[in-house]
Amino acid sequence: MLTDKTAVITGSTSGIGLAIAQQLAAQGANIILNGFGDATEIEKVRVNLELQNDVKVHYIAADLSQPESARQLIRQAAQLMGRIDILVNNAGVQHTARLEDFPTERWDQIIALNLSAVFHTTAEVLPLMQKQSWGRIINIASAHGLVASELKAAYVAAKHGVLGLTKVTALENAGSGITCNAICPGWVRTPLVEAQIEALAAQHQIDLEAAARLLLAEKQPSLQFVTPQQVGGAAMFLCSDAAVQMTGSTLTLDGGWTAR
């Protein structure tokens, strides 16, 4: 149980981040939500999490592509809750293009949100966790943190960087009660992946479900999407006593993608 602990989860207003928030709240953790979306819908999510789990839930609308905003998210969360025990770095963005055609502004955006934000939130939260001699930092990377794909230079570079940062964080805090691990999902049917399915459907002039099967067949031998709830379960495990000696590690949920 995570009663009286506080979890900050970036990119948690939908998809993987929300599934993680739901699972941690079900174990008694208070939650800081963060992400973009319709304000009314976000408030519904916040209230539902509170009522269903009898925990405190706050929403902080920080733009994590801005370094000071990413650090302010941690400071504001600590002021609201009095402590931060769990940090889940999940927020991300994607763009596809050949390397020589990759727009500089999109490269900068992806690196800022998918990699630099992880550095800033982690650097800001570590002193708080060190004072209490307990902390769990979970970085949501990707199968693309382990292997590459065409047209995804910035995303692949960022996710490989996240795995390196995870290992450094783990080594610098080994034995302190603070662990840092990464989760590498394969295809999860999030809005990011849905956009790629739509692009495939348009390219091949097929319907969305046929495009989804085509996407899976290219990379994921199980031919099944990883669910947000499965990623949430992995995050829950990393917060449990069973994972106390697990740090600097990668949990891969990819239907066999990286086994090839």
Report the portion of residues in β strands: 5-15%
Counted beta strands:
7
Mean pLDDT: 97
Q: Which structural class fits the helix and strand makeup?
A: alpha/beta
**Rg from C-alpha positions?**
18 Å
User: Quick one: biggest sheet?
Assistant: 7 strands, parallel
CATH class of the largest domain: Alpha Beta
Order of helices and strands: EHEHEHEHEHEHHHE
Q: How are strands sequenced across the largest beta sheet?
A: 3-2-1-4-5-6-7
Broad shape: globular
User: What is the distance, rounded to the nearest whole angstrom, between the alpha carbons of the first and last residues?
Assistant: 37 Å
Superfamily (CATH H level) name of the largest domain: NAD(P)-binding Rossmann-like Domain
User: pLDDT below 50 for ≥5 consecutive residues: which ranges?
Assistant: none
CATH structural fold name of the largest domain: Rossmann fold
Return the domain count.
Answer: 2
Q: Which CATH architecture of the largest domain would you pick?
A: 3-Layer(aba) Sandwich
* Proportion in helices: 40-55%
* Number of helices, counting only DSSP H or I runs of 4 residues or more: 8
